[in-house]
Amino acid sequence: MPPRGGGKGKAIGVAVGALVLVGAIVGGVVLLADGRDGAPDDGRRYQLTTPQTVAGVYQKDARESDKAGFDAAELDDLRKLGVSDAQDVGAVYETGTGNARRMLRLNGAWGRVKDPGKVVDGIFALIARDREKSSKKTKFEGSPRKVTPEGLDAAIMKCQYGRYELPSGSFTMPVCVWADRSTVGLTVLSDQGAALAGKDIPMDEAASLAARLRAEARVEIAK
Mean of the pLDDT values across residues 161-184? Predict the structure, then answer.
């Protein structure tokens, strides 16, 4: 697994070394997203938080979490996609040690989301467009796949495998993006043991963990 490093900024990119495959959102990009899939609006509003523990075992890494989240240019791109009053949040969670170590990264935002489907497709469009600029070592396999893990409710989520190339071989990490009427999240899940063994993390597992993170991180805003 590539080493850690980097500061906040280009959050959909190189903020943590192992997650370089996610690409970079660059300021000023105008998206041409095909998908239009709006989740119903129940009138409630939520903010996105970063709990200390996720799914019972993933512990927040305070040092690495300082480097997570969207920067000003990326928030501007989200606004162009229809996310108003966007506030960014970010966190890195870890569990296990050695070859059993797993890392879950969240880059998120909350505000008012006009069209959740457009936001999800738009983020993947930016990732695809800017991958070449961020790293020649990464590529994405296939197309983003719509997933409906338990607990997702009315949110929209899609996931896609990113592949990281090393001189000794390559490994994949699933990238999932969700959006609802209040929150947006991008997660990347890495597994050191799976990477060393050349195995994929099951997409359904990554989607379920992303949905669990969303459920535990959203807090309803009192009216």
Answer: 87
pTM recorded for the entire structure: 0.82
Topology, domain 49-218: Protein Transport Mog1p; Chain A (3.40.1000)
Name the pairing type of β-strands 138-146 and 53-54. Answer: unpaired
Question: How many angstroms separate the CA atoms of 55 and 72, rounded?
Answer: 30
